[in-house]
Amino acid sequence: MRLLLAAVFLTSAAPTLAGDAAVPYPDNYRNWHHVKSMVIEEGHPLFGAFGGIHHIYANPKALEGYKTGKFGDGSVIVFDLLEANRSDNALNEGARKVAGVMHKDAKKYAATGGWGFEGFGAGARDKRVVGSDAATACFGCHAPQKDSDFVFSSLRD
User: What are the structural domains, with CATH classification, of the chain?
Assistant: First the structure.
């Protein structure tokens, strides 16, 4: 599971390990703005870690960040990864693998570009799968995206 999150944009580096630094589970995120979807199929280099259907959701603050290029504190982005099931010449969503969360708080998460990262296994709010490994499991992959405030996705035109 950690390998799955290692390439995902999911914060609590050593200076921010206190309980109050935990990234909260984003209730009702599927009602937020849908930024994009993607399917990673067998043959893609990230299939082992990220194979399946991806949906990216942004809360209203993050939606503004997508428009302006600067994500303010309180921005939350969710990377929803689901199994991809094929049958009868159709691709359908299966079970949730992980809900990856980026939560912007420049002071609390200064060590990781102002973003807190967490993964919630199978979407369960109490099954944290990143915790204190966020700096290496998530931010390491996001660091090259500094020019886009450490965010990979962008709004569709």
Answer: 2-148 (3.50.70.20)
